Amino acid sequence: MLGAVDRETVDVYEADIEVYLRRPLAVAAGTAAFAAAVPDGLLRLDLGCGPGHMTGALGTPVLAADAAWSMLSRVEATPLRVQADLEALPIRAGAIHGTWASKCLQHVPADHLPRVLADLHRSTALGGRLELVVPEGEGTWRSGRDNDLPGRNFWNWPRARLLDVIAGAGFTEAHLEATDRTDRMELHVTATRGRTLPDTVGPGMRLLVCGLNPSLLSADVGVGFARPGNRFWPAAIAAGLASRARDPRHALEHHGTGMTNLVQRASVSAVELTGEEYADGLGRVERLCRWLQPAAVCFVGLAGWRAAVDRRAVAGVQAEPLGGVPVYVMPNTSGLNAHTLPADHAEHLRAAAALADRR
Predict the structure, then answer these.
(1) Quick check: 2 pLDDT over 50?
(2) Which of 64, 125, 202, 354 has its Cα between 20 and 30 A from that of 242?
């Protein structure tokens, strides 16, 4: 059950629990504010709880979760404990009303963090609070022999990318504070679980599919193109980009098909979106492409691309890449788009996949 957290790091914590316990373990100042923000009686999550030195300060009830059993077995502040892969939490949808993730996500490879946060989004009730702490910087590093716990792997985060990933995971109202810890800068982010649809993205994507923005139904069920009559999923299966309808995680893991939206905010209709949202959304998708480098990106819906980039654009391969990634634009797959036949949607997706394969 250990997929997202670096395996070598988990092994260090499993083997060296007694060394870890000899460290001075202080309760972070932010725990009191977190405990007050989550209403009494609603479940909160201590993610990467370690031996539980902060668990008791987070309010009740609290679920302690960690990838290392040696750590989790020392938690005394709560009877609710689970050893879990952070990328596939065994928690039902909407059960958590707040997540405290202090320094555990620094052990998750950076390009896996979007999926970890997407799973947290699924597990968190609307309006639930997220607090996380990661080190600031670029790249990754490994603790050496001069450290009391050598052999652990850490991933640093640039501020702008961290905020992009949090927004892409469907968390809103993000607030970032940086703290100087002498040997490093720590980034503490507080955000809220919105009525949004998180990205399903990761390393090695064959094709990144970008919708315009999620419907309220898509946001509520956690699946893009979820409205009855939308023809995306049958077309994606026909094009070989998916083999299970309405299962974005399976499409990513088995077909290399990632999914995002130009605008993350869910709405009844796209006419509610503003020019500023289009511009901001395009910037985020461009940075996502530049970071994860899918082989190609396919925008589903001419209206979004025309509003954000080229008002005279036509379906097909576009002249300019986005974030260094080739772009294909296709008609909207909504059932309201009577001008495009289902077979045509599949053909467009085949063409987008062919563009990716040529790269």
Answers:
(1) no
(2) 125
